[in-house]
Amino acid sequence: MKDTMNNVELTQIAQTFQTPLYLYDAAQIEANYRAYAKGFGDYPHLICYAVKANSNLSILQLLAKMGSGFDIVSQGELKRVLAAGGDPKKVVYSGVGKRREDLIFALKTGIACFNIESIAEIHLLNEVATELNIKAPVSLRINPNVDAKTHPYISTGLKENKFGIRMEEAFELYQMMATMPSLMIEGMDFHIGSQLTEISPYAEALDLTLALIDRLADAGITLKHLDMGGGLGIQYEDETLIDPADWIALAIEKIGARSLKLVIEPGRSIVGNAGMLITEVILTKENEGKHFAVVDAAMNDLIRPALYDAWMEIRNLSDTVQNTADMKSYDIVGPICETGDFLGKNRMLALKAGDYLMVKDAGAYGFAMASNYNSRGRAAEVLLQDGKARLIRTRETEESLFELEVAHLVK
Ligand code: LLP
User: Fold this and answer.
1) Contact residues of ligand 1, CB 6 A cut-off
2) Angle at 67 between CA 266 and CA 252, to 5 degrees
3) Which fold has domain 26-268?
4) Topology of domain 4-22+273-401, per CATH?
5) 337 catalytic, yes or no?
6) 160 labelled ligand-binding
7) If you measure from the C-alpha of residue 53 to the centroid of ligand 1, how many angstroms do you get, rounded to a whole number?
8) Residue of 267, 206, 261, 205 whose CA lies nearest to 232
9) Which of 45, 52, 400, 407 is exposed most, by the fewest CB atoms within 10 A?
């Protein structure tokens, strides 16, 4: 998030909407999207924002208005895209476990492409499409077996991962698909991981997939697009970043004279640095010389530190002077009954009960991964746009969390 808002304004927003609170900056999301669009220039392309990173309807609407397409992984995400006014013809559908009913819904909706991840899925899609008498546009997700050099949980392009189809198998599968009456071969895709900071794994994956595309062309199977997934990292700490323009230029250069539209599926790099989580310090305590700040946000609100040991910057919005004499090394922890419930460890901060803290760069995989663990309602979400702070998701009430259970109580 750009430092357009000063701490007083942020504190006021926190007071108005209460905490924990997710706050997003529309201008930053737009700028991030434009960096990709600009990188393509007039090269034929489709930017499919990865909905999983942040699926709030107002954010999807903002991106849809800019002309963005969407990468979805569930029927739920497709329904969100439609509710937000997204164009189904710009939707690609990824994921290893699409069910029959998901395929039916997406086929009837008329999406741009099914990114297929297994032989079983090829057969199921052909069967369902035949029943519905609809031609299904398809792409095979290739697992190029490259090391994305990122956290193992978010690395997806190695052969031991569950994702995609092995290079060695893909050629024959394309030939098989070409004979299937209800499939329409559109392209090829890969997605090698998330929070990538080096471009070389992409170069490797591009070389491998383009060679396969050429082999297919020689065999009379012409693909229309290449989808190189998402995965560009953002700066949480001091990471070096891949410039979207360099990434796209690399792909365009490697594609060369081939006639291939480029599709990308960025998630984190569109919304990550455009959001923050604001939380209030409930109390401070000391155990055996260790200092804890217990805050009102927890791992159910933001699971990245607990799940990936992710480091996310934490600042005090209420005391911006941060007198070094008052600083202590704090573990910033939530109220949940788990040792893994922390937002940050060993942070040198001056703080006291009642202070508002912000966890920076929490726009991606923050709210989207939130849960109701410990019967905690999920946070409110607010979007800053044109100088105004607008509520885009109401804070969940505790009562709403057990609504679906009340009718099942024994009378
Ligand atoms: N396309 C596919 C097929 C994906 O699986 C993903 C992310 C993306 C695109 C978008 O990747 P991005 O541009 O956001 O890196 N929860 C983890 C990240 C999981 C990423 C899953 N797949 C985290 O908080 O770091």
Assistant:
1) 50, 53, 71, 94, 154, 191, 194-195, 229-232, 265-269, 304, 308, 364-365
2) 55
3) TIM Barrel (3.20.20)
4) Lyase, Ornithine Decarboxylase; Chain A, domain 1 (2.40.37)
5) yes
6) no
7) 7
8) 267
9) 407
> 224-257, pLDDT tens digit by residue?
999 999 999 999 999 999 999 999 999 999 999 9
Average pLDDT over residues 314-329: 91
Question: What are the tokens at 332?
Answer: 């910033």
The model's pLDDT over 353-411, given as tens digits with 9 standing for 90+, comes to 999 999 999 999 999 999 999 999 999 999 999 999 999 999 999 999 999 999 999 99
Q: List C-alpha distances in Å: 200 to 32, 58, 109, 148.
A: 22, 35, 37, 9
Q: Beta strand pairing status for 275-287 and 225-227?
A: unpaired
